[in-house]
Amino acid sequence: MENVHEEWKKQLVKCIRCGTCRSVCPVFKVCDNENTTARGKVKLLEAVSEGKLALTPALQARMSKCLLCKACTTGCPSGVKTDELFLSARKALAAENGLPLAKKLAFTGLTYRKLFDLGLKLGAAFQGIVFKDAPDGRGKLARLPLPSAGLSQRRIIPPLSTSPLRSRLPEVNKVASPQGKVAFYTGCMLNYVYPEAGEAIVKILKAHGVEVVIPARQSCCGTPAFTAGDYQVGRYLAEENVKILAAENYDAIITGCASCGSALQHEYSAVIEDPAVKKLWENLSKKVKDITQFIVERGIKQDLREVRAKITYHDPCHLVRGMGVSQEPRQILTSIPGVEYAEMKDAAKCCGAGGTFSMVYYDVSRKINDWKLDNAEKTGATILATGCSACRMHITDGLGQRDSAMKVLHTAEIIAKAYGLD
């Protein structure tokens, strides 16, 4: 633990207590409590490193009340790597106090790939027992309150697909006269929840003349586990994915999920321990690209079909601040004939999803979401595009709560329509 404290001190000493993080933290804006800010958390960790405060369950709860949106990291004038610091703290706190049994079981289940896949397929088949269709058809509502799952009878969630993406498509998707070969890392939500968006990505890639391999043995990226502090599971998943993706020589590793892409590109650096796998990852991480990055680099097709719609765009935190992707989706959307693009205010601010954050702190996440939706609706757009399935799920829930007619689509679905691939 002393080594951990020494690593913390390298970041803690940089904090000048200026409070800039207060102005960018969405959780602080809702809770108006100093301990929800990065500055407040830094002060708490400083007390721990000085032996004045123990790694208590109460501290663990405070550290969990963070979206890991990276806004404080990018906005810090002193360069404190708050995102890395808070992940390290969660790791230490989980090691000291453990995690709730439900989380521990869920994370452990991720390591059994075939069993996890079977469980979600069975869940899709029998989801009607626990959930009913939402009145407007946007998703599902719990028949009974399920507070332990972060659900209630008012929260709208997307249904599990009875035909996951990786069961719809072959592992190798060939093209005539291939101009390259890429791996498509689908992650979990594009596979089990939004397979149509995943299919759109594969069609787009094939339209650009590349062979698309969807590695059958890929697993969850591990983000839910290691962001909660379970680095044992997170490390296993990270190392397995790296070994699988490094087994062949791909021109690029394509992602359509911001969190998966950011994990593969950056977060694995602090998760992987095996030196050999770490070396593989260092080479692999340079090839990780969001689908919109790949399209812009290859060149947006010129013979695009007209898509008559007014569209606004939401920047997922892990895409804009994690992967540095912001202009690419806008460049593509504004190039589509018929699209009236309307930039919303604060498009790069967090929508409040934060993975499991919205399950544990649903009321807080909803208030943050409402600010996002207010700005989106003011544009008059009929479609909100985004590149993160978790954001899509959370924003769709918010729109349903306010009976808004706006629809949420993955950016790739709109691009596929413009490419004439729908």
From TrEMBL:
EC number, as in UniProt: 1.1.99.14
Gene3D superfamilies, per the entry: Alpha-helical ferredoxin
Cofactor(s) demanded: [4Fe-4S] cluster
Domain 4Fe-4S ferredoxin-type: 6-36, 57-86
Catalyzed chemical reaction(s): glycolate + A = glyoxylate + AH2; (R)-lactate + A = pyruvate + AH2
Function: Component of a complex that catalyzes the oxidation of glycolate to glyoxylate.
Protein name in the entry: Glycolate oxidase iron-sulfur subunit
